Amino acid sequence: MGIDLATFWPRIVDATIETLQMVAFSLIFSLIIGIPLGIVLVVTRPGNLLGNKAFFAVLNGVINFLRSIPFIILLVAIIPFTRLVVGTTIGTAAAIVPLVVYAAPYIARLVESSLLEVSPGVIEAAEAMGAKPWQIIFRVLVPEAFSSLILNITIATVGIIGASAMAGFVGGGGLGDLAIAYGYQRFETEIMIITVLLLVVIVQFVQSLGNKLSKTSRRR
């Protein structure tokens, strides 16, 4: 039997806001962690600016390990850590913790990929002019890779949106939680369709915005 969708619009609006909050905060914290990690991966790579084989091997291994864990398993595996950080394992705040743990290593890899696209000749020219490592990183590497970084961060954001929907399986709130609680468990097909459409709209907006920002920031 159908439902009166009008009675559910406030719930849908609240779930959309929760999803946007999860994605925004998770992205911010993941960038704070992931961007420096990505930079360190590049500069400590053997033969690079601050090449350190042992340090690179350890960091590379840790990131590979975290990247290999499926998000749905990670959600459950770090429940004690989530409870320690936010005091609960249910709700939007609790979903942000595993989202950050999941997305930060992913962003580190994407940042690494973007920075490695920078021509070695540009770096060598900066070194020849006497630039210090930190100057090369922030005045050469990052600016040269900025357009690619934006595209890769857009990809990461879309990934976080998808992961935020999976957080609904453990009561993480947002559109995923609404889709599971009503669209799946109660067979309310209309709710499922609405949540899917809203997620599609959010993803399309993020991707379009990222493409536009990347294009306008491209160095000529």
UniProtKB/TrEMBL annotation:
UniProt protein name: Methionine ABC transporter permease
Source organism per UniProt: Gracilibacillus pellucidus
